[in-house]
Amino acid sequence: MAELTYRDAVTRGIAQEMARDPDVVFLGEDVAKAGGVFKTTVGLLEQFGPLRVRDTPISEQAILGAAMGAAMTGLKPIAEIMFSDFFAVCFDYIANEIPKSRYMSNGQLKCPLVVRTGNGAGSRFGAQHSQSVENWAMMIPGLKVVAPSNPRDVIGLLAAAVRDPDPVIFFEHKSLYATKGEVPDGEIVDELGTASIVRSGRDATILALALMVPRALAAAERLKSEHGIDCEVVDVRSLVPLDTQTILGSLARTHRLFTVEENPRLCGWGAEIVSIAADEAFYDLDGPPVRITTPHLPLPAADILEDMVLPTVDRIVDRVRRSLSA
Amino acid sequence: MTKGLGHAQPAIALDPRNDDIGETMRLTMYRMQVEIRESEQRAYDLFLQNLVKGTSHLSLGQEAVAVGFAAAMKPGDLSFCTYRGHAHTLARGVPIEKVLGELMQRDNGLMRGKGGSMHLTSVEHGVMGSYAIVGAHLPIACGAAWRAQYKGAKDVSVCFFGDGTTNIGAFHEALNFASVWKLPVIFVCENNLYMEYTPISEVTAVEHPAADRAASYGLERIVIDGQDADAVYRAATAAYEKARAGGGPSLIECMTYRYSGHSRADPAKYRPEGELDAWKKRDPIKIYRERLIQFGIAETVIAKIEADVKRRVDEATEKCKAAPPPSLDILTTDVYADGGWAWRN
Ligand SMILES: Cc1ncc(C[n+]2csc(CCOP(=O)(O)OP(=O)(O)O)c2C)c(N)n1
Ligand SMILES: [Mg+2]
Predict the structure, then answer these.
(1) Whole-structure pTM over 0.90, yes or no?
(2) Whether A52 contacts A26, CB under 8 Å
(3) Mean pLDDT throughout A81-88?
(4) ipTM surpassing 0.85, yes or no?
């Protein structure tokens, strides 16, 4: 066991997979010599050499296109898109090319690659460097989508993503990079498509992802100590495949459902889960499901404004308490 | 002078003893050009009978580019094509029936109807997909070439695209990327003078949309006659040799012309009077047929090739007409690598 930052867990996860399989290669902007703008890839160039760890021009289409071509022909590339907001300039690869090639070719083409990206708010970067865009990826058939909330999951899910035969979009949360967690020694390999119950409780199920997981946990502690409400917190971890079993299983025990989503309101991942719950677990529900999200706004830059819009511990506590006492 | 026609190569030497291409290769290139022409004519006829569904983009008039490049390839070389990709797919040896079957959306099609005419793919023949988003496949071809470079493999990736594609960002990203990484990839611009309906000259800052940009990426400026399969074959061979020797990418602009409209919906009324006729005088198959005769190949040998191709196109057509539509159980297969489409448990 060692305490590791989320940032260092990214490095360790990539290194673990590159050391295991010489077909794993890594490319992105400023990732090699500079070690990444978020310092998530420091030392990889020195460890694995310039043929496997490659700096690219500022060419997001070339990065994802090259990753796809390499994956189609036998490599297992990890591509970094510095900020997930930049998906918008290479969205053809994310929406049309990478996910559709297997289907359109009737199974002839494969695309085993991982796109890592810095997602989410908290750095006061404003509306084009702070977004949570998991739903941009989640809506596309053919992709898998994960978003870890802690260092151990970073390594385990990254390893699972690299070993997976399908394309995986791997959302790292920028505001989690500096956070720490206990990580076992040795190889860590997790499983895609599995949610984890990070706190057990009887009164309500709170679903959260990435940065919202620690906030949901903190809210659950306060709800218990201050209001006697015992919440179960589920870290969704994997949006595609979605672990509906774990989610609906929790709901069947608690009978109340809350989602905590960093994305703007419309079409966030919680909307899909709430619709599944309405469809398949309606009679398990003792009250209306509640989505706690960022309002449908572009993200403001100023700290005081950004703090107003992201779901906070206070807002989660307040919403759950009011809903359960109604 | 009609645009593009001024780029003919000088007449080649007629002495067969000086022939670098040789009779066997010449006959192969002729047969393949005729096969593409006949198959695409057939596709058009079948469209008029409402048997080819969806869209289709023909390369009638552009056959020499596909054939000259395919002839210069080695097994294992990879092709990346566009929606106008029937010619390149056939040129790699994919059976006519498989291509027509896909156009007719039958179960015997190359992808059993799941891709359609714009996405012809046959990995076993090195056709690594046909791409319908303009420019998308240039970076993808770079990735395949990167794999070859990393693995020390000797295969080369080639990427075919049109003149209109030179104005999209992915073109420029890929050219720079390939050049900086010195990748074994060949970019082939088929300049047929039009994007969809707009002449390329009206929307491009330079005369030669590909070649005049080559210098920006440290590459040689190459413009060739795309109506002469021998000229294409020679330029292609040089580019393959360079790529295999570690010399990096090439960008080759082939002057050519499409006889039909952009897609089946386009009557091509935007073309100036006489332009089509002028280009048909330099029809690639006519040029090549004359070349064969110049090299002393008997008319009977040529006629037999033509008859043989027609028979094979007829046979393929009948097989496709008799083939059932795709079975419904493939609707949800191959979304993910486990063969299915499950996105949840
Ligand atoms: C990104 C994108 N923009 C527009 C289109 C619509 N479109 C399809 S083909 C085409 C013309 C392409 O021209 P060119 O590259 O010269 O190829 P050609 O069709 O002449 O072979 C256009 C505009 C598209 N498919 N993708
Ligand atoms: Mg064109």
Answers:
(1) yes
(2) yes
(3) 98
(4) yes
